[in-house]
């Protein structure tokens, strides 16, 4: 049984439908990408999974329990952490305070020291900047902090929403290296990303979302070779 499964999910805002009958699965220990052009419904997909918007139809099953329509705080309590688009840190708080905000659940609080050591080992740059305000960090360091904050909740599944957005090209490569290191720690992840070429090197499988529907799905290595994906998204 998959760790996460979306079964024919339809969702949207008001009169607008952003997702139509979307089905996808993420197995434990897997890294899965959802790629596609702007307006394809990728961010809506993550909002449904993280409980920000309820699906109109279909079901969302995580570790055998239906989470469809459950509020966001319950989704987090089940072990799903969301690294949102634009990072959404608390800019006036320090690095240490932002990390502490990630460990607000009782089970995460108990393991706070251990989590902090793990995050510091993964991201030494954060360990050196514990007392610095988050707003004064570079874009790459802020993204590191957003990932570190998600790890502090001791998640079973991490959702990444456009992690490379707004970063300089040299930082994008570093970011994917960081995500690869997180992956090697054994975390399961679902990544929505515009940078198709880089993300396909990182994940096991990918789904191609176009105008709210899954158009293609496959092993990452196979997808990157397909003419359609190359032409439309990798710019070749």
Helices and strands, with pairings:
Elements: E1 4-13, E2 16-26, E3 31-35, H1 42-49, E4 57-62, E5 65-66, H2 72-77, E6 80-83, H3 95-102, H4 106-110, H5 112-122, H6 124-128, H7 139-152, E7 157-161, H8 169-184, E8 188-192, H9 196-202, E9 205-210, E10 213-219, H10 220-225, H11 227-234
Parallel strand pairs: 3-8, 3-9, 6-7, 7-8
Antiparallel strand pairs: 1-2, 1-4, 4-5, 9-10
Characterise the protein shown here.
By secondary structure, this protein is an alpha/beta fold. The protein is 40% helix and 26% strand. The chain has 11 helices and 10 strands. It has helices spanning 42-49, 72-77, 95-102, 106-110, 112-122, 124-128, 139-152, 169-184, 196-202, 220-225, 227-234; strands at 4-13, 16-26, 31-35, 57-62, 65-66, 80-83, 157-161, 188-192, 205-210, 213-219. The strands form 2 sheets. Strands 6-7-8-3-9-10 form a 6-stranded mixed beta sheet, with helices on both faces. The protein has a 4-stranded antiparallel beta sheet with strand order 2-1-4-5, covered by helices on one side. Helix 3 packs parallel to helix 7 (139-152) and helix 7 runs parallel beside helix 8 (169-184). It is globular.
């Amino acid at each position: 049984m998959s760790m996460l499964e979306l079964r024919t999910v339809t969702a949207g805002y008001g009169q607008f439908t952003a997702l139509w009958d979307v089905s996808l699965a993420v197995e434990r220990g897997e890294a899965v990408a959802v790629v596609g052009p702007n307006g394809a419904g990728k961010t809506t997909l993550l909002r449904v999974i993280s409980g920000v918007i309820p699906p109109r139809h279909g079901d969302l099953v995580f570790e055998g329990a239906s989470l469809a329509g459950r509020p966001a705080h319950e989704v987090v309590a089940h072990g799903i952490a969301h690294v949102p688009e634009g990072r959404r840190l608390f800019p006036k708080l320090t690095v240490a305070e932002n990390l502490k905000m990630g460990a607000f659940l009782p089970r995460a609080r108990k393991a706070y020291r251990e989590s902090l050591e793990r995050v510091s080992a993964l991201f030494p740059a954060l360990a050196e900047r514990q007392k610095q305000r988050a707003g004064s960090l570079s874009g790459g360091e802020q993204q590191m902090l957003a990932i570190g904050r998600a790890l502090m909740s001791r998640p079973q599944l991490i959702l990444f929403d456009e992690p490379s957005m707004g970063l300089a090209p040299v930082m994008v490569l570093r970011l994917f290296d960081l995500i690869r290191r997180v992956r090697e720690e054994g975390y399961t992840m679902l990544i929505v990303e515009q940078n198709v070429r880089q993300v396909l090197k990182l994940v096991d499988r990918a789904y191609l979302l176009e105008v709210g529907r899954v158009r293609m799905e496959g092993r990452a290595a196979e997808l990157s070779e397909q003419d359609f994906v190359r032409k439309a998204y990798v710019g070749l």
